[in-house]
Specification:
This protein has about 210 residues and is an alpha+beta fold. Helix content is about 50%, strand content about 10%. It contains 8 helices and 4 strands; from the N terminus they run βαβββααααααα. The mean pLDDT is about 95. The structure holds glutathione. The site of glutathione has 12 residues, from loops.
Length: about 210
């Protein structure tokens, strides 16, 4: 059975959600963030040297990096329900969103997060960081005007991958003027698979890690 090394309030929540959408059995190995530093416990380094979550173990395969995990699970267990075939016309757009989430969007999201956590030290960067995040959110808002999900009319693994940076943006108070992004988040949060993943994964509240560092 697939094992998910799951850190609370983290990117691994979307892996649980994906596995629920796929109806694929899995077990959760839980890890708790340090209350003060919000970093993962050292025990996660025994699974992978970076000690970050998510990591999955599927037989002999130990796979970190959520984009790689989402792509692997959707291809291997999705029976093409959540990922287009390699030669499908939608495949390039699918790959784009899959990689964009961590490769581009998380960059201004994380810098905004660090601005909130490490206030004064980040102050000189704040205006640039805000405008970069707005650039991305404007773009995503326009894209969601073309179709309700990132790939069209139904959910794909790209939506799962995009969920975390958008949830984090919402927790940072950055999505209030973006009705389509807000509606996208409302719709995914309403899905039975999402709700089941939340029940299994435990508390998922981004505001908990947004507090200024002391
Ligand atoms: N790009 C990686 C990022 C992994 C990552 O930074 N995970 C965070 C959780 S959201 C983590 O493990 N943080 C705890 C720490 O850095 O100690 C991915 O998408 O999997």
């Amino acid at each position: 059975m697939i094992e998910v090394h799951h850190l609370n309030n983290s990117r691994s929540q979307r892996i649980l959600w994906l596995l629920e959408e796929l109806s694929e059995p899995y077990s959760i190995i839980p890890y708790a963030r340090d209350a003060k530093t919000v970093l993962a416990p050292d025990s996660l380094r025994a699974v992978h040297p970076l000690g970050k979550s998510p990591v999955i173990q599927d037989g002999d395969v130990v796979l970190p990096e959520s984009g790689a995990i989402v792509e692997y699970l959707a291809d291997r267990y999705g029976a093409r329900r959540l990922a287009p075939e390699a030669d499908a016309v939608e495949r390039p757009r699918y790959l784009y969103w899959l990689h964009y989430a961590e490769g581009s969007l998380m960059n201004p999201v994380l810098l905004t997060f660090y601005s909130a956590r490490f206030g004064e030290a980040m102050a000189p960067m704040r205006a640039r960081v805000r405008s970069q995040l707005a650039l991305h959110l404007d773009f995503i808002e326009a894209e969601l005007g073309k179709s309700p999900f990132f790939l069209g009319d139904s959910l794909s693994a790209a939506d799962v991958q995009m969920s975390f940076p958008l949830e984090m943006s919402a927790a940072l108070g950055a999505t209030e003027n973006y009705p389509r992004i807000t509606n996208f988040l409302d719709r995914i949060h309403d899905r039975p698979a999402y709700k089941t993943a939340l029940e299994k994964g435990g508390r998922y509240d981004m505001s908990g890690i947004m507090k200024p560092a002391t």
